[in-house]
Amino acid sequence: MTTPADFSVRGKQVTVVGAARSGVAAAHLLLRRGATVTLTDTRTEIPEASELAAAGVGLELGAHRPETLLRSDLVVLSPGVPADQTAVAAARSAGVHVIGELELASRWLRGRIVAITGTKGKSTTTTLTGRMLEAGGHRVLVGGNIGHALSAQVDVSTEETIHVVEASSFQLETIETFRPWIAVLLNFSPDHLDRHATVDEYAAAKSRIFVNQTATDWAVLNGDDPAVAALASAALSRRLRFSMTDSLASGVLVRGDEIVRRTADGDQRLVPLSSIRLIGQHLIADVLAASAVASLVGVDSEAMTRAVENFKGLEHALEPVGEISGVLFVNDSKATNVEAARRAIESFPSIVVIMGGRFKGGDLRDLRQPLLDRRATVIAIGESRALLREAFADAVPVHEADDMSKAVRTAFASAAPGTAVVLAPACASFDMFRDYAERGRVFKQEVTRLQEEWNSVREQ
C-alpha cells in the first residue's frame, strides 16, 4: 500500500468517478499534481463541464465506461459513488488502485485532522467545533462532507492548520491511511440502508474513523450511546467521553447549568448552558462534543462560550422559519433518517410534522410513541406516503400532500396556535428534490408565500 509520504500521481492516468462537488475538486487537485485526469459521470451534462475541459480534464459523461477505469493507474471515487459499482468493482478486481476523495486529499494535507462522524449532528458539531477553534486563535479549515471538499483545501494547508472534517460513512468506507488526530463519534443508529447492505456494514464504515489512530491520538465518544462504545472498542487512541448527564467519572458533561470537563484534579468550567441559542435539547450533545474537542486543542472557556453565543445553528437543521397566527414553522430538512426525525419531534410539545421522501431504511414505528405523546398530525409527502400511513394512521391523523405547497397549507390548517409545523422528513429528498437543501428552501418559500397570503387576508 502506498503511504502518504511517498504518494505521487505525477505522470499517472487517474480517473475520478462522480462529478459532484468532491469529484470536481479532486479532478482539479490531481491535475495540479501532475496527473492526466479523466472525470466520468452518469449524467449527460454537468454545470462545470466548460471549466473542467478548459483546465485540461477529460470528460466522459452519460456512463462510467469500464475500459476507462481499467486502463487507469488510479481511480478516485466521489462519496456518492458506491464502492461496489459495476465498473469500479471490475477495475478493482483487475488490480487498479481505488480510493475515495477523502483519502486522496488527506495524503497531501500538512496540518492535523479533527474528523467528526455519526448518524446525526455531524454538520452542527463540525461547524461549531471550527468556530470554537477559530475563537481560540487557531488557523482552521472546515470541510469534507460539509462546505468545501477536502481536496479544495490541500493547496492552502499548512503545518499550523487544523482541518475540521465532517466524514460520512460513504467517505470512510474507502479510506486507507486517513488518520485523524481527534476522531469524534457522535451517535449511531440505522441509516443509509439504501446504500449499505446491512446495519453492520454501515457500522463498520463508521468505525473506520478510528482504524489508523495510534496511542497519541484521541477518540471523542458519546458516553450516553452504548453503540458508540462498541464501535470504538478496537481503537488504540485515548478516550474522552461526553455525556448529557453528570454521570461520568471523567469526561465532558453537564453539571447543573454548565458544561464542564471533569478530571482527577476536579471540574473545569467550559460553557454555560445559557449561552446555547439552538432549538432542541439533543443539540446540547453537539455542543458537548465540540467543547470536548476544543478542550483537547487547548481553547479556553471564554473563547468556547463566545463561539457558542454567536452560533444560531445551521440552515435546514431545526431552523426557525417564521410564525403565522401563533404557529411556528421550523425547517429540519437535514433530518433524513428516523432517528433525526425523532429528535426533531421530541423538541416540541405540540407538533404537526411534514414527513416523507425516499425512505432509506430503519423502523418508522420508532416514531409512533413520540407522535402519540404530542397528539401530533403527520403530513405525508413523496414516495413513502404509503409507508407513513401504514406506520402511523392507526395512531395519529395522517394527511397526504402531492407537493410542498399543499403540505405547508395542510399543516397550517391542522395546527392550533402554540403548535410547531416542522419539516422533519425521516427520508432522503431525491424523489422530489435535488437534495435536502433544495427541499428546505422550497419549504421556506412556501411558508413565506403563506405568510404573505395570510397578511393580505388580514389587511382586507
Could you describe the 3D structure shown?
The N and C termini lie far apart (73 Å). The chain has a 9-stranded mixed beta sheet. The protein has a 6-stranded mixed beta sheet with strand order 15-16-20-17-18-19, sandwiched between helices. The model has no long low-confidence stretch (mean pLDDT 94). Helix 6 packs across helix 11. It folds into 3 domains: 94 residues, NAD(P)-binding Rossmann-like Domain (Rossmann fold, 3-Layer(aba) Sandwich), CATH 3.40.50; 201 residues, UDP-N-acetylmuramoyl-L-alanine:D-glutamate ligase (3-Layer(aba) Sandwich); 141 residues, Mur ligase, C-terminal domain (Protein-Tyrosine Phosphatase, Chain A, Alpha-Beta Complex), CATH 3.90.190. It is globular, with a radius of gyration of 23 Å. It is an alpha/beta fold and 460 residues long.
Name the features:
single chain; 460 residues; alpha/beta; Rossmann fold; UDP-N-acetylmuramoyl-L-alanine:D-glutamate ligase; Protein-Tyrosine Phosphatase, Chain A; 3 domains; 9-stranded mixed beta sheet; 6-stranded mixed beta sheet; 33% helix; globular
The total domain count is 3
**Distance between the amino and carboxyl termini:** 73 Å
Radius of gyration: 23 Å
Number of helices: 16
Shape: globular
Mean pLDDT figure: 94
Estimated share of beta-strand residues:
15-25%
Please describe the topology of this protein.
Blueprint: E1 13-17, H1 21-32, E2 36-41, H2 49-55, E3 58-61, H3 66-70, E4 74-77, H4 86-93, E5 97-100, H5 101-106, E6 112-117, H6 122-135, E7 140-144, E8 162-166, H7 169-172, E9 182-185, H8 199-207, E10 218-222, H9 226-231, E11 238-243, E12 251-255, E13 258-263, E14 266-272, H10 283-297, H11 301-309, E15 319-324, E16 327-331, H12 338-345, E17 351-356, H13 368-373, E18 377-381, H14 385-392, E19 398-400, H15 404-414, E20 420-423, H16 436-459
Parallel strand pairs: 1-2, 1-4, 2-3, 4-5, 6-8, 6-9, 7-8, 9-10, 10-11, 11-12, 16-20, 17-18, 17-20, 18-19
Antiparallel strand pairs: 12-13, 13-14, 15-16
